[in-house]
Amino acid sequence: MARLSLKEKKELALKLISTLEQTYPNLEMTLKYSDAWELLVGGILGAQTTDEQVNRVTKILFVDYPTVYDFAAASLDQITKAIRTVGLYRNKAKFLHGSAKIIVDKYDGIVPQAREDLLSLPGVGPKVASLVRGDYYKIPAVVVDTHCGRISRLLGLATKTDPRDIELELMKVLPENDWIRWGHFMVTHGREYCKARCRNCLICPLAELCRYPKHKKVQKELIAARQQNQEDGCF
Ligand code: SF4
């Protein structure tokens, strides 16, 4: 299937955003936080862990350690114990402890806004840096997690696999004032219709626009699934 031109991608992006707005009128971020540090903590803890699991842990964590200064003053062992129910907790504890110390020592306790400064913190990659810049500081940025990268590729807006490359591709085709919410749209859509192992193209509101169902092989599968559903009386 021929690749879309930049102009076609921009047109497609506008149509997708319009449909996503109608589909998810009450779009919300699932991570709970009250300041930039808490969002950074949620982002670091969120690697290979669900937002719900992160929220369960941070609900207690932020009571025991209310500020970045409390994280910096705590021992690594204390933080490790406090987050032990999260996957990869030993590494994440080192990241949180290291980041807190740098933020206290170098940035007077304030989470930096500059991308380079954020990326210099332990455990902070492009995704978490964009998350903090976009959702807290409201600096336009596209958060590319696995959902966003995968679905943006299926939709036809991205072609790369590296998250930073995908972010740059999306920044070229999405209107700047939609950069921040695009990531949230993709996470929500991934949860509702487009799971990694189970794409629900038959009932997906983006199916008419999405490039994935237009692949010949996929079309055959969809037609067969539709016939089966009719035979089974599903709809
Ligand atoms: S049509 Fe299928 S592949 Fe495209 S977004 Fe929807 S579920 Fe995902």
Care to describe what's here?
By secondary structure, this protein is mainly α. The chain has helices at 6-23, 36-45, 51-64, 68-73, 76-82, 89-107, 115-119, 126-136, 146-155, 163-173, 179-192, 216-232. Helix 9 (146-155) packs across helix 11 (179-192). The protein starts with 5 loop residues before the first helix and ends with a helix. 36% of the residues are buried. The site of iron/sulfur cluster has 14 residues, from helix 9.
Written as H for each helix and E for each strand, in order along the chain, the element string is HHHHHHHHHHHH
Low-confidence stretches: none
The shape is: elongated
Number of helices: 12
* CATH class identity of the domain at 36-136: Mainly Alpha
- Largest sheet, described in full? none
Helicity, as a percent range:
55-70%
Q: Which superfamily, in CATH terms, is the homologous superfamily of the domain at 36-136? A: Hypothetical protein, domain 2
| Secondary structure category | mainly alpha
Question: Hetero groups bound?
Answer: iron/sulfur cluster
Count of beta strands = 0
Q: State mean pLDDT (0 to 100 scale).
A: 92
Whole-angstrom Rg: 20 Å
Note the gap between the termini: 30 Å
Strand content: under 5%
**Can you name the CATH architecture of the domain at 36-136?**
Orthogonal Bundle
